[in-house]
Specification:
This protein has 147 residues and is mostly helical. It has 6 helices and no strands. It is globular, with a radius of gyration of 22 Å.
Amino acid sequence: MPEEVPATRANTTESEAWEQPHKQYSVPNDSIVQDEDSRVRDELRRKLLQTQPGRLRRKVMTKFLVEQVSQVIGVPSCEIDETRPLAELGLSSQAILELGQRLRSLTGAKLSPTAGWQYPSILALSDHVAELLQIPLGSAPKGANRQ
């Protein structure tokens, strides 16, 4: 019987040769996502705590939420009005649930799956998320309360 020859660059296909050196570097996607979520969470917390409570801290949180809504609905963040109801911004029921999951992952907040309906605008949601993070934003602007 002929001996089996171990795979080498000489007897592998081109695609196998390309994949072999990279196999040792593969990282499960879940750990990459978790690392990114942790980085985002830490960065948001740092920015909020370094900013004085009030208008500027609220702006940090609102900007973060606008960016998340933008990612979910695929609309540039500059086109999103944080005072409008989420449904008017184009978020379907499924998209609101996706936004909630995204916010839970990125902030670590124990956000209810129904938060997008209980706090129907980005401004209203920003107060709620900040409260869950135990980082007060300061006095709420008119129209930001739960509806």
